[in-house]
Structure formats: structure tokens, C-alpha cells
Amino acid sequence: MARNIGNLIPIFDKLKHSEVGSIIEYAVQELKVENILVIGHSRCGGVKRLMSHPEDGSATFDFIDNWVNIAQAAKIKVKTQHSDLTFEEQCEICAEEAVNVSLKNLHSYPFVKSGVDEKKIALRGGYYNFVDGSFKLWDLE
């Protein structure tokens, strides 16, 4: 199990974010996991930071802002498709969309992609709403 701000998985890169890559590599190559589940949650501080990050690119936090920008595509999608919603509602939707970004990014890891292609690994997304106790589970289409 890996836990980080925003529950994010970056695109495969041997030089950047190697701690996440090493966790995934160990789970897939050594432990031979059959399922990888990425779970977002309600009231996520990482997603809130992503959604409130200034559009001009100015950064308050060096490490946090760089990290949460992994899910920039989720933010853009939510801001475009749900501009009529409140900031809090957008954050909740973005938490789920960030899971989808991470699931897509998992496909960039060669050992994950081959496991998925060979049907040895299943990738699933989840969202836990700890306010009402609900849990959603899905496969990325």
C-alpha cells in the first residue's frame, strides 16, 4: 500500500518520483499483485490545493504544487465541465477524476501495461466518502 498527497500516481519516469515507481514495481514484479486499486476520498486536501492553485502558475509550495499538478488534466476537465458547481462540489468531482488520471498514468509503467495486457493485473478506481460512509468502485474504460 502506498499513500501520498492526493493519492496520485505520476507518469512513468526513472528519474522523477522514483519512490512511487519503486512501490509499483515491487508490488507488480516481486509481489505479483493481481489488483491495483487507486482510492480517492472526500475532502481531500491535495485535490483542494490543486483546484485552488493559481492559473498563472505561481507556486506557494515548491514540492506540493509540483506534486498535485500530476492531476492537472482532472482539474481542467472539472473546471470545464462543471463550472456551474461550487468550489467544494468541484473538488469532490476532481477527487474522482484524479483517480482516473492515476489509473491512466499506471499504463505508462511498462511492467503494469504488460500485466494488464496479459490480463494478469486489473486496475480499479475507488472513491471513499467518509462524510456519508459510501464507497464507489470502478474500472477505467
From TrEMBL:
What GO molecular-function term can you cite, just one? Answer: carbonate dehydratase activity
Sorted alphabetically, which InterPro entries does this protein's record hold? Carbonic_anhydrase, Carbonic_anhydrase_CS, Carbonic_anhydrase_sf
Quote the record's cofactor note.
Binds 1 zinc ion per subunit.
GO BP terms: namely: carbon utilization
* Residues that hold Zn(2+) according to the record: H41, C44
Reaction catalysis annotation: hydrogencarbonate + H(+) = CO2 + H2O
What cofactor does this chain's UniProt record say it requires?
A: Zn(2+)
**The entry's keywords:** Lyase, Metal-binding, Zinc
Family per record: Belongs to the beta-class carbonic anhydrase family.
Its job: Reversible hydration of carbon dioxide.
Q: Tell me what this protein is called.
A: Carbonic anhydrase
Origin organism lineage: Eukaryota, Viridiplantae, Streptophyta, Embryophyta, Tracheophyta
